[in-house]
Amino acid sequence: MIKIDNLKKQFGETTACDIPSFTINDGDILGLVGNNGAGKTTLFRMILDLLKADEGSVEYVFASDEEPSGTVSINPATSEAWKEHVGAYIDEGFLIDFLTPEEYFAFLGKVSGIPQNEIDERLKTFERFANGEIFDQKKLIRNLSAGNKMKVGIISALIRKPQTVILDEPFNFLDPTSQLVLKHLLTDYQKETGATILISSHNLQHTVDISTRIALLEHGSIIRDLSNSEGSATAELQEYFGAE
User: Fold this and answer.
1) Cα–Cα distance between 71 and 89 in angstroms, integer?
2) Cβ-based neighbours of 180, under 8 Å, separated by 6 or more
């Protein structure tokens, strides 16, 4: 669970985020949608403590066998303990581009305490998504296409099997087949792990297809919080974005 309280961020005269209160529940697949400048990436960066808020806070609440309450609350601004529970990919800055994909995944496994044989086994889950373009190519990440860099980033966010996954524009640069495979990959991951998944996307249809809940942002504020059972949010979103 992620709790947002009075979260604000201003860039000059521009309000990038103004969210009085918002809770992302365990098991949600939350799609953030909005036009350019709506504040989607800014919100993700504050949730990941990559950008300091002017006011307010973000709090992670994770299941814990060690606490009497059964949960542990973590403020990312004051503790780094949340990082072991969260996988994210925002942009190429998350990658170590002078490594090959295999070296990068091995590095992630090493810093996370996951044995190499376990990393190798987990990578098999992503073979269809990689589509013969990521593994065993003997290419550095910096020499991959934009779409294949995106694939490496998405795999890196999922490979540790985190409780919370945050992906900014994950359908960007992917060919149509990879976009469809990614939709199944994310929904299957959520079913298998019960994870909470946050995605932002300009691809409205893909977002509606996989999200259980939609947050519509405008000028940094969440103006609508829509349940999306079997695509029920489609009509309201089409009306907002001006579809005939």
Assistant:
1) 25
2) none
What does the block give as tokens for 95? 């990658």
Predicted pLDDT at 187: 96
* DSSP 8-state secondary structure symbol assigned to residue 228: -
What pLDDT sits at residue 244? 45
Structure token pair of residue 144: 């991959």
pLDDT attached to residue 210: 94
Distance, CA of 169 to CA of 171 (rounded, Å): 6
Nearest Cα to Cα of residue 212 among 226, 223, 191, 194? 226
Angle of CA points 236, 91, 194, to nearest 5°: 60
- Give alpha helix (H) positions in 37-138: 40-47, 101-112, 116-123, 127-130
Cβ burial of 124 (10 Å; 0-12, 13-18, 19+) is: exposed
Mean pLDDT, contiguous 10-residue spans, the chain (244 residues): 95 93 95 92 95 94 73 85 93 95 96 95 95 93 96 97 96 94 96 96 90 95 91 87 68
CB 77 within 8 A of CB 131: no
CA 235-236-237 angle, 5° bins: 90
pTM check: above 0.90: yes
Of 199, 233, 238, 217, nearest to 35 by C-alpha is 217
- Residue whose tokens read 């072991």: 84
Kindly report each contact of residues 175-182 with a partner whose C-beta sits within 8 Å and lies 24 or more positions away, as own/partner. Answer: 175/147, 177/131, 178/129, 178/131, 178/147, 178/151, 179/203, 179/206, 181/128, 181/129, 181/131, 182/129, 182/154
Inter-CA distances, 50 with 22, 46, 125, 149, Å = 19, 6, 29, 21
